[in-house]
Amino acid sequence: MARRVTSILDNLLGWGKIILPHSSLCYYPPQFVLRDPVVAGVKRALNSGYEVAVIAYTIKNHRELAAQLGEETRKHHKALKRHFKAVIEWEVEKKDMIVFHDYYSDSLSLFLRIDRNKHCVSEIETKMKKILREVESRIFLEYPTVQPIFDTGFIFIDKSVESVHEAVLKAHQQAFAMAEKRIQTEFNEMVYEINKIVSQQNIKILAQPIIDVATKEVRAWEMLTRGPEGTALESPLQLFSVARQTNMLYELEMIVLKKTLEQITLTGCSNDVFINFTPITLGNFRFVRDLKAMMKSYESIKPNQITLEITERDSIEGIDNFIYNIKVLRGMGIKIAVDDTGAGYASLNTICEIMPDVIKIDRSVIQNIDTNSVKESMLKGLLLIAREAGSIVIAEGIETEHEASVLKRNKVELAQGYFYARPGLLQTV
């Protein structure tokens, strides 16, 4: 069966390129005298509902390079600028980006437009690493005996700050703090903030219903996380990206689990509940042990009520305990869901590896599906994969009645999105 699913996946890989979005990039020097196009570009992106991530690259060994290169230092920096420009233009379609050809001293910053419905933190990290690997390989050909060592970091621009100018400056400074991890800088402040959130368990858990398309009845709930209200970390994209870069991701996701179990107990909810986890956490050698210990405190909750939803588009390759942990969890009666299906190869590959109980079809497939025959064909292909894998299908991000009608026509059983209900409090149905 797995071989047959693999064959179907191979035939559908070409479709992924149609629904994978391109992002806007620009880069800027660290002295950061803001120019109008930067502020205007960020403002347009934020007003259009996007997030904007500032990505920082800094050369860790710049002093050693300067001492080694001497008068050649300026030429080396110009070469780095040239290679970064070439790689970025190669990575992203020119029509989708604004490029500033500035490179200063030992640092470089990029601005990346993010659609939170289509992108995830792991994609940002993947793009950062891919650009860096290509630049390093190109500069090696030109300077084989002199290699820069880069540190990288990123942060999202805080949309709650009234002045876009101030928000960009602050995010730029924080991104370089993330990259350099300097003592007594914004990095330490962010470490302090995320540690405080974890120690105080200061997060809010919302619930969005998963609806039976035919009957409109609530069949399950997906639990969604928000950081402290009114802060820069209220956004889950910002919260989890900072947690990831400060090595607090596992602790944060275990708090999400605990608070979800508390809500199920307090409300007496008897529906299935979906809890999001990154592959990194699911593959942690402590995860199964910690989950079992936690569930002992909530004996009224049966394991078969819980579905662990694999979020992000991380590849599961190289995560030592991931497959083993999934088998143990299934043995306990816990169900496994794969999120973002159709948004890239990683989720499709994960389907082959684990044959999930639930496949969640990404919003990028569903959006405007009623006017796009290619997307409907993509949906049909994913439904075929689900049948071969023995998986239930849930369509995500339904916003219009027309989109819902396409799901009904294709016999999709379950769906969630603003058309049905916005996230709110967990309820007993």
TrEMBL record:
CDD domains per record: EAL
Coiled-coil residue spans: none
Domain EAL residues, every copy: 187-429
InterPro entries reported for this sequence: Cyclic-di-GMP_PDE-like, EAL_dom, EAL_sf
Superkingdom of the organism of origin: Bacteria
Alphabetized GO MF terms: cyclic-guanylate-specific phosphodiesterase activity
Listed name of the protein: Diguanylate cyclase
Native source species: Mesobacillus subterraneus
